[in-house]
Specification:
Blueprint: E1 3-8, H1 12-25, E2 29-36, H2 40-46, E3 50-55, H3 69-82, E4 89-92, H4 99-107, E5 111-115, H5 126-131, E6 137-140, E7 153-154, E8 171-175, H6 182-189, E9 196-199, H7 206-211, E10 216-218, H8 225-230, E11 231-236, H9 240-248, E12 253-255, H10 267-277, E13 280-281, H11 287-297, H12 308-319
Parallel strand pairs: 1-2, 1-4, 2-3, 4-5, 5-6, 6-7, 8-9, 8-11, 9-10, 11-12, 12-13
Helix pairs in contact: 1-12, 3-4
Length: about 325
């Protein structure tokens, strides 16, 4: 009988980790995904691999921890109803959204796998730190993360399989992830660049369409990989897009951290990730720094790393 696995797909890069793992587990395990309520993007990314369960996500990246408390309680009640004893393994891909269902899963006897983010180097994410004490395995994506989570197991970076051939269609892809990156978008908006594909996330795309009708602009696209595959250069916030752009599609990549995200990874993490990916890091978001980064990154060659998602899939199937 195939192993029955529950995986959180908590939005943004967390959903990306879920997809990367699901691609390696497809036809080898029965998968169910826990998705935030109203997150149609995450649903569209994982629904072809298994069933969907909806659980409330208590806090966004700009929200305070105090604001999350009522949502965490609701998520716990939902998880108690949805997570059944017939499941065998629970995989937390991070985010506060993963914490209540992970705790409920552990109380019901499931093996708990706790994945640290690929952008964390200097301190663990809050969800991974909280769950490490009840986890059967804490999964790390870089050897450097052993310094912050000594009991973790390094499997390598989790990146998605390519769905399209890697081409150079001449455009620069600019993205800020699910929540968007207004400061980056506004800076790009004031540059004299013609061939831009802009994914705005939850930020209103209309001001950018009005000023640059020649650009390709959209808020979300569940088939986002096709835009990475065809890009000449990828410019993104500090998130999983830079991993997939660099490791899945071998694109020259520019990392522009979002200063509004105060509870996520910071500048030291961005510097370390940029070095590992041979990417260009923009510290001051100005027209001059963006233009300089575009010129500099053209001479950068993406590195090669082991397939962490394949390694983790083998651990789940053969050792748990």
């Amino acid at each position: 009988m195939a192993k029955r696995i529950v995986i959180t797909a908590s939005g943004g890069g967390h959903t990306g980790y879920a997809v990367a793992l699901a691609q390696r587990l497809e036809k080898k395990a029965e998968m169910t995904f826990i998705v935030p309520e109203n997150d149609q993007w995450s649903k569209s990314k994982v629904e072809k691999y298994g069933e969907i369960i909806y659980v409330k996500k208590a806090r966004g990246p700009k929200d305070s921890l105090a604001k999350a408390i009522p949502g965490l309680i609701i998520a716990g009640i939902q998880s108690l109803e949805e997570i059944k004893n017939q499941y065998e393994v629970f995989v937390s891909t991070g985010s506060n959204h993963s914490v209540p269902p992970a705790i409920i899963a552990k109380t019901k006897g499931l093996k708990l796998i706790n994945i640290e983010s690929s952008v964390r180097f200097t301190k663990p994410s809050l969800s991974v730190k909280a769950l490490q004490y009840i986890s059967d395995l804490t999964i790390l994506q870089w050897p450097e993360q052993k310094k912050i989570l000594p009991k973790g197991i390094v499997v390598g970076p989790l990146f998605e399989k390519p769905l399209y051939p890697c081409e150079d269609k001449g455009y620069i892809l600019v993205t800020g992830g699910t929540y968007g990156h207004k400061l980056l978008f506004d800076t790009i908006n004031n540059l004299n660049l013609d061939n831009i594909v802009l994914q705005t996330g939850r930020i209103n795309p209309e001001p950018y369409r009005k000023k640059h009708p020649q650009w390709t602009i959209f808020d979300f696209d569940p088939d986002f990989q096709k835009w990475i595959a065809g890009a000449n250069i990828v410019i993104s916030h500090l998130g999983k897009t830079v991993i997939d752009a660099t490791l899945t599609y071998k694109k020259p990549t520019i990392i522009v951290p979002n200063p509004e995200w105060t509870l996520t990874a910071g500048w030291p993490d961005a510097e370390l990730l940029a070095k590992k990916l041979n990417a260009v890091l923009v510290k001051q978001i100005t027209p001059k720094s963006i233009l300089k980064a575009i010129e500099t990154v053209k001479n950068k060659k993406p590195p090669e790393f082991p397939d962490g998602a394949e390694h983790l899939a083998k651990i789940i199937l053969n050792k748990l």
